[in-house]
Amino acid sequence: WMLNNSYNGVKVLLSDGKWVSMSNTACQNLERSKDLLISVSNPNVKFVSSIRNGIGVFDDKGTIEDQSDDRAVLLVEFRDIAGNTHTLDRVSSFIQTPSGVLLIGTETGLYRIDSPEELLNGNSLCIPVALSIPQEGREDIFAAENIRSLAIGEQGYIWVGTQYSGVYCVSADLTEVVNHFSIDNSPMPSNDILSLCWVESLRHLFIGTSEGLVEYAPEELDEGLKSINERDTEPEEGSMQRWRLHLSYLNPTEIAATGQGIFAVANGSLFSVDKEDDRIVYWNKATGLNGIGV
To answer: How many Cα atoms within 13 Å fall on the side-chain side of residue 257?
Structure first.
């Protein structure tokens, strides 16, 4: 499955090598499409986000090549419990939790849809995620915040990357802020978060900021995780020994990582970092990639 910015914005490569274009309502006119998710509870249901056109939902009924039986909607306006209308036409990131909750990051805050498949039945209930950090004296921290990226870590923790306030770690039930990292309490080079990637095999979080890629180990104080200032002292709980900076001064807008290496799209090129020796390789048009930018 892939997104393609065109009239039929979702394409499928079938196992027999045949390409199919999805032409239902949820897949049309997807200007600046962003993400595509397959429902955790029903693989026939797909969710599509667009930075400008809201959220599309469709059920292909398991008959991808026969779209006459598809159910599909494209939604921009949603309602909360009080009946207030929320326009979600600037979706920058969304994920679905293992329990099925659809989390939506927008330029105006973080929202949740507890029963996203019900969108196909006309139920557009969408709840703003309103959390506070008393120790920082801040209430409703996501209100009017540009949510740039979302990721799910161990124990179901939700990692939330913002444009101005750094990274938040939120409990799996979305009731409390477990942690908050910014340039004030971490080695992150910027509070402007562009992308997040949780790597289960490492149990590390990779954070793409406008000034570089940061690797964070929530639980480990491993000697392999060098602090930015190369401290030789014994690390304490919460010390900077948990952090490591890669690709300094670059802007990783997309990240994928394994236990062996990191891949990041930054400054129009594709970079890879070998975790064994920190060797960096990059590909762009000059090195053979087709196109002017990644």
So the answer is: 29
17: CB partners within 8 A, 6+ apart: none
Contact 141, 164 (CB under 8 A): no
Q: What is the DSSP string of 112-175?
A: EESSGGGGGGT--B-EE----BGGGTBSSTTTT--EEEEEE-GGGPEEEEESSS-EEEE-TTSS
Digitized pLDDT (tens) for each residue of the chain, 294 residues in all: 998 766 778 999 999 999 999 988 888 877 677 789 999 999 999 999 887 778 999 999 999 999 999 999 999 899 999 999 998 878 889 999 999 999 999 999 999 999 999 999 999 999 999 999 888 888 899 998 999 999 999 889 999 999 999 999 999 999 999 999 999 999 899 999 999 999 988 889 999 999 999 999 887 654 433 332 333 434 344 444 588 888 887 889 999 988 888 999 988 888 888 888 878 888 877 777 766 566
Could you tell me the pTM of the whole model? 0.87
Provide the token pair at 230.
Answer: 């190369």
255: nearest Cα among 185, 178, 197: 197
57 within 8 A of 70, measured Cβ to Cβ: no
Give the long-range contacts of residues 28-31, CB within 8 A, separation 24 or more: 28/74, 29/53, 30/3, 30/5, 30/6, 30/56, 31/5
Q: Is 164 exposed, middle or buried (0-12, 13-18, 19+ CB in 10 A)?
A: exposed
**Residue 232, C-beta contacts closer than 8 angstroms, at least 6 positions apart:** none
CA atoms of 51 and 45, how far apart (whole Å):
20
Question: Which residues lie closer than 8 Å to 128 by C-beta, 6 or more apart?
Answer: 80, 86, 109, 110, 111, 142, 143
Residues 6+ positions from 107 with CB-CB distance below 8 Å: 90, 92, 146, 147
Residue with structure tokens 């890629």?
213
